[in-house]
Structures are given as C-alpha cells and as structure tokens.
Amino acid sequence: MFEIIAFYTFSILVIGMFGIVVFSENVLYAMSALAGGMILISGFYFLLGADFLGVVQIIVYTGAVMALYAFGMMFFDSARDIKENIKFKKIIYTLSILSAIFVIFILMAPIYSTRVEALYPTIHGVGNVQMIGLILFTKYLIPFEVAAIMLLAAMIAGIVLVKVKIEETPSNIEVARGEK
Amino acid sequence: MIETALIIETVVKAVVVLSVVAAMGAFATFIERKVLAFMQRRLGPMHVGPYGLLQLAADGIKLFTKEDIIPQNTIKPIFIIAPVVAAASAFVAVAAVPYFPEFTVFGYTVHPIISDINVGLLFVMGAASVGMYGPLLAGLSSANKWSLIGGARAVIQLLSFEVVSGLSILGPVMMMGTLSLIDMNDYQIGGVSHWLIWKQPLAFVLFAIAGFAETNRTPFDLIEFEAEVVSGYATEYSGMRWGLFFIGEYANMITISVLVSIIFLGGYNDLWFIPGALAMLLKVSLWIFLFLWVRAAWPHIRPDQLMWFCWKVLMPLSLINVLITGIVLV
To answer: Where are the beta strands (DSSP E) in B53-201?
Structure first.
C-alpha cells in the first residue's frame, strides 16, 4: 500500500522534474530541476531495498550536478532566459516521442515474454554493501578494474592539461606583487 | 495493526527529533553569543531575562515578524526554495542518526533513531552535502554579485571537502567493517580505551576539519565572510528566510558533533559512572563548544589557502591514512 503510494509520488515528481529540465528556458530552473530529479530517483532504490545504491545516487549526483552548476555559472547569465534556436519543432517532437516509445518496447519485451528474476536477490540479514562487494570483486572484477584505469587516465589527462596553463599564466598574487 | 503502530511511532519520533534539534540549534545561537562574549571579555546579551536567556525569544519574535523582502530581478521560485533546501536537508540528515541507547517507556522499547538503515553514515553525509545546494541556489538566484561569489565559493568548498571527509572516514569504516552508526557505536563498547580515536587519530583530525568546512564554521566560513563578500549568499535575505539558513547551519553542527562522538569518541556507551545518554550529551556539547572556541580563536583563511590546504595537505594525508589502515589490516 505505502510502497504503491510512494512509488507513484516519486514517479510523478521525477517525471515532472525532468520535464522542467527539458522544457525550461532558464538555466537555473533546468539545473535545479535536474538536481532535484536525480536526488528523487534515489527514492526508487530505497523502495527496492537497495539502500546503498540509493545513498550513492544521492552523493554522486549531488557533486556531479554541482559541477554542472559551476559551468552554468561561467557560461550563462542565470537571471535571463536563453533564446533557443529550434527550427523544426514538429519533427523534433515526433522523433523524440517515437524514440521514447521504441526504448520502452525494447526494454519491456524481455520482461513481458519471460518472467524476469533477479540474478542476485537480496538476502535478508546480509547488507547491500557486502553483496555489492562480493559481486563486484568476483564476477565483475575485470570491468571494475578497467573502469578504474579509465578514470585514472582521465584524471591524469586533466591534470596535465591544466598544469600547462597554470605555469604559463601568472597567479593573482604574483601580479599583485609585481613579479610578473 | 503493526504497520499503523510503526507509522505513529515514526511520526512521533520525527516530530520530537525535529523540534528538539531546532530548539537546540536556536539555543546554540545564544550559547555562541555568550561564549564568544566571555572569550572577548564582554558580557554578551544581559538585558532580556536572567543572564539574557530570553534574548532567544526576542530574536525569534524579531525573525518571525520582520518584513520578508524579495528583491527585484531575483528568480523568485528558486530564491524562495533555497533556504528551505538548506534547512530541510539538515533535518533529513538527522533521520539516520542514533542519539541515545534504547530505553523502555511503559513497557515499550524505544529505539532513538528514526530510520535504522544499514548505510546510515553514508546517508547522513550525503543528505548533509545536499544542504550545500541552499547557499548555491541562493547565490545564483539573488541577482547580486556578493551572493554570486558566495554561491561560487559554496561549490568549490563542497566539491573539495566532500573528498576529504569521504576519504578520512574510509579508514574507520575499514576497521569496523560497517556503515551502520549503531554498529559503529557497539564496536567501541568496552570503555575509553576502546574508543576509535586512539586507533585512528589522523582520521579523527581530518574528519573534524572537514566537518568545520562542511558546516561553514569559522576558519572556513568564506562563503559568508563579512569583510570580503558582505554576507555572501545571504546578502539579499531577510526575516525568517534568513533564519532558515541558520537553523540549517546549526542543525548541521549538531549532526557533525553527533557523528564525531559516535564514530570516534565512543558514542552513547556508558562512560565510567556516567550513563550513556548523558555521556552523549556531554560529548556533543563539548564538541559544540569547540566549534565556538575555534571561532573565537582562529582567523579566517582565504579561498586560495583553503584550496591549497584541502588538496595539498588534507587529501594526501587522508590517502596515506587509508593506505596505512589497509596495510595494518592485511
């Protein structure tokens, strides 16, 4: 009973939020709605008993959307609406609705034909964290490590790119002292 | 039937915790003024009530009855939502924090925690970090340069110190093998020598520093520092909206104090002859006092110093701490 109420409340809120993200012409509205939607998605994880994933959803997307805010602050005037340059509205709407329906069909087909069962059902008494750890470090060890190496490479690349610029441009303190 | 009882119990707990934390937050503002005054050889508020105790009520009346101004050119909905986000997320964080040991009222055992999820620590820290959206949204929607700078500072502060607090807490979590705050408390059940602060002193210091930064307390209060950015994100706010930001900040202070007490200082276990609940209260008040003490004693630091301190001192230290903990455990 409560699960159903909670599910529909969260669904309506999430869809509404992402609707605002797409349709709003103000950067601040769009990003705030994005943050709200991302955080509200965690509600579904909590409903399904995946506490750990729910919390990770909150933590990761708080930081991620906040980085997006930083870019928004740099590139846009948040107090003004953005003029969007959309020429063929009808085509865009029909295409997006069609592709959405396609995605739903593709995802629903296996669920409809065979009863889907959880590969790793939650065991009562064993925590989420332990279960995820076990699966991550046995079956999915190689994808996990590959993802880690990819992130490391991206981080090093970022540092290298920024470091060159820092050495070229004088810092504010040096300018103030008249050293450069 | 059982479900109804559970709902009633949860609602009662939520209301009690909400009102007690809000009241403690309000009281902390009074204590803050008094403690700062004594440290600076003043008397502080003295005229309203005995020792100025009713100053609290006076402040409350002032905040509630003050005209609520929404300036021109602000983005109204966001401007209105921002303080609510700050206060609400602080109170959401409180939901997974255990305060006292279990006790029995009229034959009914009460667990003094609203929701005992087994990733309590992560939940509290995640919900508290959502609170940084309050200053950020306020800064962006206020149409004011000081507010915007305050908001930008909120972003860098959160993004930087979330890394430090997450990494520093990793060592204790590795040692205790759990993310549940109740299990963490039970891990240190054997008295003072079992406290985690002796095994993880570095993590304790790092987490405390990150806690100061995440609650915008004084050495790191650069998002609302008067001499640089007027009042930062809160420049355009007045009345109860302004008050909500500070209720959120003080609620966060209490949450951080409780977290430190549970993770490092033995939690609500009995301390010598002092019963657990009282020991917990003492630890939390000691920690709040430390917040005020630091505010009176320490100068404020610049944003670039903050970044240097965070990324070049604290983060390597916390990584080393994780590494050493791992080696010792293996």
So the answer is: 103-105, 108-110
Smallest Cα distance from B252 to chain A, Å: 17
Q: Is the dihedral of CA B86, B87, B91, B92 positive or negative?
A: negative
| Closest Cα in chain B, distance from residue A114 (Å) | 33
| E strand residue ranges, B79-234 | 103-105, 108-110
Q: Model-level pTM?
A: 0.81
- Nearest-by-Cβ selection for B118 from A39, A51, A56: A51
Give the model's confidence band at A178: pLDDT under 50 very low, under 70 low, under 90 confident, else very high: low
Q: Which residue has the tokens 């930001």?
A: B245
Q: What is the pLDDT of residues B23-52, one digit of tens each?
A: 888 888 888 888 888 888 888 888 887 888
Total number of residues shown for chain A: 180
**Tens digit of pLDDT for each residue in A59-104?**
888 888 888 887 877 777 766 777 777 777 888 889 989 998 998 8
Q: Does the structure show a pLDDT above 90 at B198?
A: no
Pick the CATH number of A2-177 from 1.20.120, 3.30.450, 1.10.1760, 2.60.120: 1.20.120
